[in-house]
Structure formats: structure tokens, C-alpha cells
Write a structure and sequence with these properties.
The complex is a heterodimer.
Chain A lengths: L1 H29 L3 H26 L3 H26 L5
Helix pairs in contact in A: 1-2, 2-3
Chain B lengths: L8 H27 L3 H4 L4 H22 L7 H30 L10 H10 L1
Helix pairs in contact in B: 1-3, 3-4
Classes of the chains: A mainly alpha, B mainly alpha.
Chain lengths: 93, 126
């Protein structure tokens, strides 16, 4: 009973997060300017992190948690570097 | 899903509600990213998924793994703290970078500068 509830709701959550990633990648491809693409990339990696967490809950292993943590760390650094590049035209001055 | 076979039903329902709330908020944020008109509007949309969306899913994950392993599992708090700290930093940097670019190109869509009059008024209200 509880396994069925959890399985279906986590599947629905996976589909919702996948749709969110599709919407973010649409804005990333379409976005009229560079800053639109970077905001879309930010939303994209946050949604990918959440997708991995939900997938880890579905499989019952805590291994996916570490992958989600790495995505959060690297995504933050990447977005920061891209924003700095937009501001200054170079990353390391 | 064999690991969740002996889970209490109320835990399954609570985890489902939290995860579905988080995922639908993330989807709403991403839809806002697509449908809002200007960049400065779009900047606000994804933070919906990064705050309450991530919070719901992480709370659900903490609850599920704590009950499954019958001990307190709180390593998801790491991600929650990290996302809470980093989201405003990235969005503020991006907003400032976009403002700088728009101002330097004299774009028509860029927001008007804050005049000294408004600045003192907002300073007084604080």
C-alpha cells in the first residue's frame, strides 16, 4: 500500500521536474540575451539536482545524494563565473 | 520500491505531499521562466523552485530516509543550507550584471535609475 503510494507520487514528481527542465532548456536555447540563458541554466541545474534527489528516494539509496551535492556545488561556481564574465568580460583578473 | 514495503502509510502520504508540492513549485517556477516577458521579471521565477521547491523535496527525503533507516538522517540539510545561501548570491550578481549591460547599451527596457530624492525617501522609511 505505502509502496504503491510512494512509487506513483515519486514518479509524478519525476515527470514534473523533467517538464521543468524542459521549460528551462527551452529558455536556455531561445533566450534573447546571454543573461536569460544564464538564469535558465541556473534553474536547469537546480531542477536536475532535485530530480536526482527524487530518483534517490525512489531507489532507496543515499548514493544519489552525493551526486546532487556535487551538482549544487559545481552549478553555483559555474553560474558565478558566468555572471562575473558578463559583468567584466573576463573571469580571473 | 521493495525498500518501502513496510513503511507506515502516514509517512508515505506525508512524503508524497511534500515531494509533489516541491516538484510542482519547481515546475511553476520554470513555466514562469518561459512565459514572463522581460529579463528582470524572469529573474524572480526560478527562485520559487530553489527555495520552497527544494525545501519540500529535501524535507520529504529527510523524513523518508529517517523512517527507513530508523535513525535521524539529516545530511540533506547540507544541500538545503547551500542552496539557501547561494541562490540570492547568484541572482543578485546576475541582476547587477544585466543592469550594467543594459545601462551601458542605453537599452530602452532597462529600469530607470534611482534618483537621490527616492533614495532619501526609502532611507527615511527604513
Amino acid at each position: 500500500m505505502s509502496a504503491t503510494i510512494l512509487s506513483w507520487s515519486l514518479l509524478v514528481a519525476l515527470v514534473l521536474l523533467g517538464l521543468a527542465m524542459v521549460a528551462a532548456s527551452y529558455r536556455m536555447m531561445r533566450g534573447p540575451r546571454a543573461q536569460d540563458r544564464i538564469v535558465a541554466f541556473d534553474a536547469f541545474y537546480v531542477n536536475a539536482m532535485l530530480l536526482l534527489l527524487v530518483f534517490g528516494m525512489r531507489t532507496g539509496s543515499t548514493l544519489y545524494f552525493e551526486a546532487a551535492l556535487v551538482i549544487a556545488l559545481l552549478g553555483f561556481v559555474a553560474t558565478l563565473a558566468l555572471a562575473k564574465f558578463l559583468m567584466r568580460g573576463e573571469i580571473i583578473e | 520500491m521493495s525498500h518501502a514495503a513496510d513503511l507506515p502509510v502516514w509517512v508515505a502520504l506525508l512524503v508524497s505531499c511534500l515531494v509533489l508540492l516541491g516538484a510542482s513549485l519547481a515546475l511553476v517556477g520554470a513555466i514562469g521562466l518561459v512565459s514572463l516577458k522581460t529579463f528582470y521579471d524572469r529573474l524572480h521565477a526560478p527562485s520559487l523552485g530553489a527555495t520552497l521547491g527544494a525545501g519540500g523535496i529535501l524535507l520529504g527525503s529527510i523524513l523518508l530516509f529517517s523512517v527507513l533507516q530508523s535513525r535521524l538522517v539529516v545530511h540533506e540539510v547540507l544541500i538545503a543550507v547551500f542552496v539557501t545561501v547561494t541562490t540570492p548570491v547568484t541572482l543578485m550578481l546576475l541582476g547587477r550584471a544585466a543592469l550594467y549591460r543594459d545601462r551601458s547599451e542605453n537599452a530602452a527596457a532597462s529600469p530607470p535609475p534611482i534618483t537621490s530624492n527616492e533614495e532619501t525617501r526609502s532611507g527615511d522609511s527604513i
